């Protein structure tokens, strides 16, 4: 009888301890930051990011279940962004602009630092009033650099709905110039647009956010195959022959047919789907060369889109 009472008391004691421990664990879980937005809110150096998320009504987005990669700018990064864009405070940034800038820091998949490779990823930001996601150029040659302007300084902060990488600069909405300068595959194109054609301010033209451009961007190898570039007046026409007004993604091309696109130089470019010889599409330039391959498509910027090509297009005026 005494043994039975003792056993009952021990069972009661163990059950009570288990309940107390469980309650403490629940309390601890409640207090421990878990989601991306909770971790940001608990990190003093991300307080400006949290304020920006609140202003843009995006806290719930980064609290929601899912898998996200967030490149989180520090307080100093936000201060530099405000100064560079002549905003006194976050409250001076238009909400629609702030929303897209913040979404431009988010990728809809979980990418630890070891999984990041050099190339393009889509962010949650979108082009104009469309559902076309903006691109981000990730360069892992030396650390991790995003769009040529922002470096990962603290990687791999795990959350229940993704991962955070702290960065040292706000990643603004890119233009087609952003990608040309950030991607080393287009360094010769950048030289042609700047050093070799000083009489034309191509950077200002292609940075214009009030217009949209489609740029067929020759790779470094394409310029190497061209040989010695022509003199500035001719080269200027050649470069203008690679630019079309409007935002033409590959999905806007005629399937199983040819799309005619007038270039800024004046001659038409003819884009044919599907491509041949391993190309996504083929392009015929103004001088009739039909073996120009479109090898990468839909590098979407905030003022247009880029497609990489493997040969330099020559307008008819060069014959």
Would you kindly provide a written description of the structure presented here, covering whatever features stand out?
The chain is α+β, with helices and mostly antiparallel strands and 319 residues long. It folds into two domains: 36-167, FAS1 domain (Roll), CATH 2.30.180.10; 176-314, FAS1 domain, CATH 2.30.180. The chain has helices at 2-31, 36-41, 47-55, 75-84, 95-103, 176-182, 187-193, 202-207, 220-226, 232-240; strands spanning 68-73, 106-107, 119-126, 133-139, 145-146, 150-159, 162-167, 213-218, 243-245, 257-262, 268-273, 281-284, 292-301, 304-309. The strands form two sheets. Strands 2-1-7-6-5-4-3 form a seven-stranded mixed β-sheet. It has a seven-stranded mixed β-sheet with strand order 9-8-14-13-12-11-10. β6 and β7 form a beta hairpin. The longest helix has 30 residues, at 2-31. Residues 6-29 have low confidence and may be disordered.
Question: What fraction, in percent, of the residue positions are helical?
Answer: 25-40%
Structural category is alpha+beta
Backbone CA Rg: 26 Å
CATH class of the largest domain: Mainly Beta
**CATH fold-type name of the largest domain:** FAS1 domain
Overall mean pLDDT stands at 91
Beta percentage is 25-35%
Query: How would you sum up the major sheet?
Result: 7 strands, mixed
Span between N and C termini?
Answer: 111 Å
What is the count of distinct domains?
Answer: 2
């Amino acid at each position: 009888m005494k043994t039975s009472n003792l056993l009952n008391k021990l069972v009661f004691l163990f059950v009570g301890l288990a309940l107390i421990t469980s309650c403490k664990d629940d309390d601890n879980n409640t207090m421990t930051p878990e989601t991306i937005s909770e971790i940001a809110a608990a990190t003093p150096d991300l307080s400006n990011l949290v304020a920006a998320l609140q202003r843009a009504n995006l806290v719930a987005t980064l609290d929601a279940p899912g898998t996200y990669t967030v490149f989180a700018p520090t307080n100093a990064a936000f201060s530099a962004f405000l100064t560079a864009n002549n905003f006194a405070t976050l409250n001076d940034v238009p909400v629609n602009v702030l929303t897209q800038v913040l979404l431009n820091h988010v990728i809809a998949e979980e990418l630890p630092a070891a999984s990041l490779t050099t190339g393009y990823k889509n962010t949650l930001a979108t082009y104009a009033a469309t559902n076309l996601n903006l691109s981000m150029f990730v360069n892992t040659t030396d650390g991790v650099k995003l769009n040529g302007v922002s470096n990962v300084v603290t990687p791999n902060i795990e959350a229940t709905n993704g991962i955070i990488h702290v960065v040292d600069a706000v990643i603004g909405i890119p233009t087609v110039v952003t990608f040309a300068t950030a991607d080393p595959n287009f360094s010769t194109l950048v030289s042609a647009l700047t050093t070799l054609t000083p009489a034309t301010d191509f950077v200002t033209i292609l940075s214009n956010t009030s217009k949209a451009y489609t740029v067929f961007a020759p790779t470094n190898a394409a310029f190497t195959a061209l040989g010695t570039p022509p003199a500035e007046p001719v080269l200027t026409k050649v470069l203008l022959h690679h630019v079309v007004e409007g935002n033409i993604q590959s999905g806007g091309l005629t399937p199983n047919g040819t799309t005619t696109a007038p270039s800024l130089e004046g001659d038409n470019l003819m884009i044919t789907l599907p491509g041949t010889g391993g190309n996504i599409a083929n392009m015929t330039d103004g001088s009739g060369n039909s073996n120009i391959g479109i090898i990468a498509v839909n590098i979407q910027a905030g003022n247009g889109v880029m497609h990489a090509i493997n040969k330099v297009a020559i307008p008819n005026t060069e014959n």
